[in-house]
Every structure is written in C-alpha cells, then in structure tokens.
Amino acid sequence: MTITVHELAYYPVKGCAGTTVGSAKVFGTGLEHDRTFMVVDAADGAFRSQRTHPAMAAIRVEVLDGGEALALAAEGVEPLRLGIDTDGARRGVSMFDRPLGAAADQGDEVAEWFSDALGAKSRLVRVVPGFDRDGWGDTPGKVNFADAHAVLVASTASLDGLNARITARGDAKPVPMNRFRPNIVLTGSDEPHFEDRVRRMTVGSVELAHSVRATRCAVPMVDQATGHRAGPEPIRTLSTYRREPEYGNRVSFGAKNAVVCEGVLTVGDAVEVVEWLDA
C-alpha cells in the first residue's frame, strides 16, 4: 500500500472558496496563504463563516503577485482587485467569542464589496506580521485564522465510504470532497478514516503530527459551488457512524494536524507514516 497526496488546497479568505494547487509551501501555520484573511462583522469584529453566511462558499479568491494582491469575484457584485495592506489600521477581532487580538483592516473599498456580497456590514482583515496563535490537541501547533489547527487532512477512502452509505439510503446523491474543505487529500488506502490513526507522518519535506479529529458543524451541508445549503447530507449519514462522545457527540470527518517540520508538498508525494495512534 502506497499512500500519496491526491489533492492540495488552501483557502485565502476564511470561509470563502478554496484554491487547488499542484504544489505548496508549508509553514508552521499551514499551507502558504491559507486563511490569512478573515471577514468580520463591521460592528464588533466577530468572524463571519458559512455557518451563518453560506454565500461565502461561492466567493472566489485568487492570490496574486505572491500574496501582494487579491482578486475577488462573486455573483451580483463587480469583481475587485485589492492590494494587500499588512500595515492597515488595527482592528480587534474574535472567533467563537474568543478575542484573537488585532488584525490589519484592508480598507473601505473591500469592506463595501463584502458587505454587498453578503448583505451584512463587514470588514476584511489580515493576520498581522508576527501573529502568534496556538492550536490545541495532541500536538497544538500554530494557526492563522483557521478554526483552531494548521492543516486538515482527509482521504479518498473516507469519502468513498461515506458516499457508499449515503447512496445506500436511496434518497440522496454523493457529496464531493470540497464539502469538507480539506488542505490535503490522501489516496492509496482502502481503509476509511485511516487518517484518524496517524500520529506522525512525513509528506514531501513536511512533517505533520495529529492534533484532533475534525468535528463538523453545518458547513458540509453547504454546496460549495452555489453557496446554498443543500442538506441534510452529509451530516445526516455521518451521524449514524461518526459520533465523537468526547467532543459533545458531534460528528467527525478528517483529522486536524499541526506542522512539525516546514517544507514543500506536491501532488503525488508519497506519505510515510512514522507513528500510528494505536501503535
């Protein structure tokens, strides 16, 4: 059995559409450009997500000029090219009611753009130079504006197993992998959810270590192409076999990892499992 990297993706603006790539630099906080920007409530700085604004899924973001600019596109608003300002006015932001400190506001033009796209007064912020945020779990690691961990790993075997259960119900269609917004998709094993059992692995020149299983909210029920809720799948079927009692009985899909050794990942890279959780 040879496990390899099947797909790589990063999400420049938290909650918005992802970008698939053939190769990516990986830093201590995850793939380069991953969740370095966040949309927040203009009034109180609380983060916005697909949980409450599913239309975010269909906002397309392109990183330009090595991270010096963004191109934004969404239905119903004019495309926008934005120069990045790491020295923008500092704005206090929060996630899940926890303060994250100050972030760099990206100005009024893009704030108006996101406000129009989402129908809610919003601001776009970026992590500031020197941003330092801890994750948690078996290996906490560091994280930008992802929920709490640097890298989300899933596998084609896990998706195949889930979709077999969904289609067996007879009243729903299979779901694509993008419902789960992973950074790294692995292939080569026929064991669903083997990624849960990997304590440490090397991929390309990168080393990753297990933090926690990835518990899921309502986001996987959002069609990532349209930005519309399309539930009850896959949460309905996951709830029949992927409950996590230690995490409030929520369902899980994928594993969250910390970056132990930085480097470069490329689609097709072989994965070496250095240590299994149940070894």
What's this entry about, in short?
The protein has 279 residues and is mostly beta strands. It is built from three helices and 21 strands.
Describe the structure.
This protein has 279 residues and is mainly beta. The chain contains 3 helices and 21 strands. The strands form 5 sheets. Strands 1, 2, 12, 13, 14, 15, 18, 19 and 21 form a 9-stranded mixed β-sheet that branches. Strand 9 and strand 10 (98-105) form a beta hairpin. The longest helix is centred in the middle third of the chain and has 14 residues, at 156-169. The two termini are 18 Å apart. The model has no long low-confidence stretch (mean pLDDT 97).
Q: Features of this protein?
A:
279 residues; mainly beta; nine-stranded mixed β-sheet; four-stranded antiparallel β-sheet; 3 helices; 10% helix; globular
